[in-house]
């Protein structure tokens, strides 16, 4: 697959749906559709995008309607024309030919578990048998099969689990399928020496914990416990039972399918393991250093995604810390960290003007024009304050093609469903402006 050129995230998404040249309205429809289809995760990165929503449950009928509307828009929505002035290079004197950059190296992916071995495990592991250690610890508890691969626990007066009449439910499913995106919403944990992921949600009525024990990149054992009373959370209670589940799997012919804590369980490489949308069709790669062109025009028009990281690396790490590491995904440079609580996107955009993006601003706060390095930038919040963006003009005119884009997005800790989520702080806004100022100073001197 060829790399998309710098510019619209909408083009990236549209290409994945089989139409690399959709209208602006169609691209936005696809972007909105992704937010509906993946409600538990933040919006996709990129300069030309729409704001995602907080985690919510989307009715199937609404999702079906969104699919239809997206298809209609891709087929016939009128394109939204930009009124900005096209790019005209300021430096017209003959320049030496730029040295061609080496191609992006595709990092070998670790292999997944043998599908036939996973199929055999799903067929051979009895869901209720996996709960036998729990029955030995709590002999009055009983297992109840609920289908070919699902088992539930029941007892009139559970200890430490609670009375089912109070709304408690404990189920185990063998062979549960999930995708890499779902994994990013969960907290990595170790249970009895095996890799697992958990997510907990507490409100004023219930406590809920979901744990997934992978047997391959996409299939594994799912355990869910819901308790109809308030409290500090039920995940710690589950770990005792799950330790016994791991013991049963480990002692079976399928024990080798369990993942060690340090083993790759996603197929992603390098820091791409911290990128929440890395399982989409476009490949994610760790950043590969390249030489930076000295000519500002060349920076904007080179079309190589690695240049975007190269111009921002020092500024991002100086202002946000060394935990943030660059990756390249499609046409975007993205900075990620293991906690997933911060993500920064940097783009060099030759074919759209900064003013083209002001309509993405939160309508309650709008966009603002600020001066960075003697030239204007448009800035705004998106979503419900969880994202802050800067589009800076290297030409000194927000209506002229050419922009340097920086976006910070913040998220709740992994494994905790929270609403509302965190918002970008004033200190983080200042860090964004300082980072953009550093990029300008280092690579875009006054003309």
Explain how this protein is built.
This protein is α+β, with helices and mostly antiparallel strands and 447 residues long. The chain is built from 10 helices and 15 strands. It has an 8-stranded antiparallel β-sheet. A hairpin with a 2-residue loop joins strand 4 and strand 5. Helix 2 runs antiparallel to helix 3 and helix 9 crosses helix 10. It is elongated and about 80 Å long.
Q: Report the portion of residues in β strands.
A: 15-25%
- Helical content (DSSP H or I, runs of 4+): 25-40%
Q: Largest beta sheet: what is the strand line-up?
A: 8-9-10-11-15-14-13-12
Question: How many DSSP E strands?
Answer: 15
* Secondary-structure-derived class: alpha+beta
Which spans of ≥5 residues are poorly predicted at pLDDT below 50? 1-82, 89-98, 158-165
- Profile the largest sheet: 8 strands, antiparallel
Average pLDDT across residues?
A: 77
Q: Count the helices. How many?
A: 10
Q: Please write the string of helix (H) and strand (E) elements.
A: HHHHHEEEHEEEEHEHHEEEEEEEH
* Outline type: elongated
Q: What's the N-to-C terminus distance?
A: 37 Å
Radius of gyration: 25 Å
């Amino acid at each position: 697959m060829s790399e998309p050129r710098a510019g619209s995230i909408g083009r990236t998404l549209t290409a994945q749906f089989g139409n690399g040249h959709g209208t602006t309205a169609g691209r936005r429809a696809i972007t909105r559709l992704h937010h509906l289809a993946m409600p538990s995760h933040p919006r996709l990165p990129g300069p030309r995008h729409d704001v995602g929503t907080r985690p919510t449950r989307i009715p199937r009928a609404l999702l079906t309607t969104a699919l239809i509307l997206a298809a209609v828009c891709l087929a016939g929505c009128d394109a939204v024309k930009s009124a900005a002035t096209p790019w005209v290079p300021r430096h017209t004197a003959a320049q030496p030919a730029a040295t061609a950059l080496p191609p992006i190296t595709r990092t070998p992916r670790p292999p997944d578990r043998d599908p036939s071995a996973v199929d055999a495990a799903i067929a051979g592991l009895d869901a209720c048998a996996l709960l036998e250690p729990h029955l030995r610890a709590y002999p009055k508890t009983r297992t109840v099969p609920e289908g070919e691969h699902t088992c539930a626990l029941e007892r009139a007066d559970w200890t430490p689990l609670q009375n089912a009449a109070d709304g408690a439910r404990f189920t185990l499913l063998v062979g549960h399928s999930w995708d890499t995106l779902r994994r990013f919403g969960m907290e990595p944990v170790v249970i009895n020496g095996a890799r697992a992921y958990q997510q907990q949600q507490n409100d004023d009525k219930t406590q809920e914990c979901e744990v997934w024990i992978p047997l391959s990149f996409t299939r594994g054992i799912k355990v869910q416990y819901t308790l109809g009373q308030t409290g500090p959370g039920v995940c710690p209670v589950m770990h005792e039972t799950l330790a016994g589940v791991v013991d049963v799997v480990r002692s079976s012919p399928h024990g080798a399918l369990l993942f060690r804590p340090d083993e790759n369980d996603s197929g992603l490489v390098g820091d791409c393991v911290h990128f929440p949308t890395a399982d989409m069709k476009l490949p994610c790669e760790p950043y590969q250093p390249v030489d930076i062109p000295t000519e500002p025009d060349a920076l904007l028009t080179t079309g190589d995604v690695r240049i975007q990281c190269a111009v921002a690396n020092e500024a991002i790490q100086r202002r946000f810390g060394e935990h943030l590491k660059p990756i390249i995904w499609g046409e975007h440079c993205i900075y990620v960290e293991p906690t997933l609580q911060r993500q920064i996107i940097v783009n060099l955009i030759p074919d759209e003007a900064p003013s083209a993006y002001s309509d993405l601003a939160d309508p309650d706060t709008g966009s603002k024009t600020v001066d960075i390095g003697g030239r204007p930038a448009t800035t705004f919040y998106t979503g419900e304050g969880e994202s802050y963006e800067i589009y800076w003009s290297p030409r000194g005119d927000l209506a002229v093609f050419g922009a340097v884009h920086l976006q910070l997005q913040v998220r709740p800790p992994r494994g905790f469903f929270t609403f509302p989520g965190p918002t970008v702080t004033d200190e983080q806004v200042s860090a964004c402006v300082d980072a953009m100022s550093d990029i300008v100073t280092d690579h875009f001197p006054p003309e």
